[in-house]
Amino acid sequence: MTVKPRILYYVQHLLGVGHVFRTMRIVSALMQRGFHVDLIHGGERLPNFDACGARVHFLPSLVSDRGDFSVLLGEDGHPASDDYRAERRDRLLKILATSIPDIIVTEAFPFGRRQMHFELLPLMDAAKALPAPPRIFASVRDILQEGNKPKKDRQTVELVHRYFDGVLVHGDPDLIRLDATFPFAEEIAYRTYYTGIVTPTIDGPAPETFDVVVSAGGGLLGRELIAAAIEAKPGSALRDAAWCFQTGPYLAESDFTCLKRLAGPDVVFRPFVPDLHRTLATARLSISLAGYNTVADIMAAGCRAIVSPQWNDKETEQLHRAQLLAERGLVEMIGHRDKNASALGAAIDRVMARPKPDWSAIQRDGAGKTADILARAAAGADLAVYR
After folding, report:
1. What is the pLDDT of residues 270-309, one digit of tens each?
2. Buried b vs exposed e over 138-168: b needs ≥16 C-beta within 10 Å?
């Protein structure tokens, strides 16, 4: 009887929800490949959360204080105390001791989640001290947030050397490589493996169909885009089409009510669309931010798309992604100053006048390739083919 490889997978979301949904696509592929997965979830519980058959361990929740990542709030909404953090750390170490994994995967860490060093560094040390230490992998997006001080990036390299057997980069190296947003990528290139974009599988029709889908990710950052799309609709080439606005589970209820009133009765509002990729597969146009998961949904669906990246001096990931895809003619990009009815309406007319984009040159199935890499790692096989 074949023994299932055991994976301990850690994910912590502090603001947006993209990290969790990308992780769940990977976990689903791992479960299909026969892995036993213990998933450690450290953020707020999400609506429509599907563990894909994995065993889930919910730690006491930690979230950022309105995007201030220097302040972490506990389940009571107050700054997490030292005792609260210690409880999380101790639970995490207990899970390690009882699960006895062959592989540990940490989402974002050590390239992010520095706020979680209080529990992740003890986890790494405890894992290395086991009689049969597991292999340890970092799971990161193709594009990292820039603006870190060199000291922090240098610390990331040191942690990779100290603890990690590999860095799984969920992107297409022909589109963008890690060194574009991480200055010391060459020093860890021998442990870096590219999986392709983690796109979903279109596994049947969506329960609802729409011509235009406007989506705002988790909802914390997309209110301005939704408002612009509502105002652009009456004057656009798609004024008579069927529109759906997916506002995100974290949009304030008062904003949801206000936007729905502004839009009028002839459009559909949804706080959350769990099968966005299937909904987009039959849509004529997607209008969205440029987060990793939403763009992955667009890639899988193959629809026309307008993306409006959310960015500032420190948050540059969405801008990089939007620019790369716009340069290849795969999306229409609008910037901060163009987030208004006139500019968005003109963008709708432009993108609808063009043929549907051809996404076939982009490496996808990142979840399946991640499962392949970890299966080879569990078997002790060489991973060089994925560099």
Report:
1. 888 878 999 999 999 999 999 999 999 999 999 999 999 9
2. bbbbbbbbbebeeeebeebbebbeebbbbbb
Distance CA 270, CA 248 (A): 8
Three-class SS of residue 302? coil
pLDDT, tens digit (0-9, with 9 covering 90-100), for 80-134: 999 999 999 999 999 999 999 999 999 999 999 999 999 999 999 999 999 999 9
In a domain, 207, yes or no: no
Q: For residue 48, what are the contacts with CB-CB under 8 A and spacing of at least 6?
A: 272, 274
Q: Give bridge partners of residue 306 from the DSSP assignment.
A: 287, 332
- 3-state class (DSSP) for residue 296: helix
Domains in the chain, number: 2
- Residue 134 DSSP symbol: P
* Beta pairing class for 268-270 and 166-170: unpaired
Distance CA 28, CA 52 (A): 5
- DSSP-based three-state secondary structure for 73: strand
Q: CA–CA distance from 61 to each of 13, 40, 77 (Å)?
A: 10, 11, 10
Q: Which domain holds residue 140?
A: 6-199+364-386
- Give the CATH number, domain containing residue 218: 3.40.50.2000
317/343 same-domain check? yes
Task: Please give the single-letter amino acid code of residue 7.
Answer: I
Q: In the chain, which ranges are continuous DSSP H helix?
A: 18-32, 82-99, 117-128, 150-163, 223-232, 253-263, 276-281, 292-301, 317-327, 341-352, 366-378
Q: Same domain, yes or no, for 160 and 71?
A: yes
Q: Is 331 in the same domain as 250?
A: yes
Side-chain half-sphere CA neighbours of 132 within 13 A: 7
30 and 175 assigned to the same domain: yes
Q: Is residue 106 part of a domain?
A: yes
Tell me: do 153 and 268 sit in the same domain. Answer: no
pTM exceeding 0.85: yes
**What is the residue type of 22?**
R
Residue 280 sits in the same domain as residue 175: no
Which H helix or E strand runs over 315? none
Exposure string of 254-283, with b = 16+ CB inside 10 Å and e = fewer, is: eebeebbeebeeebebbebbbbbbbbbbbb
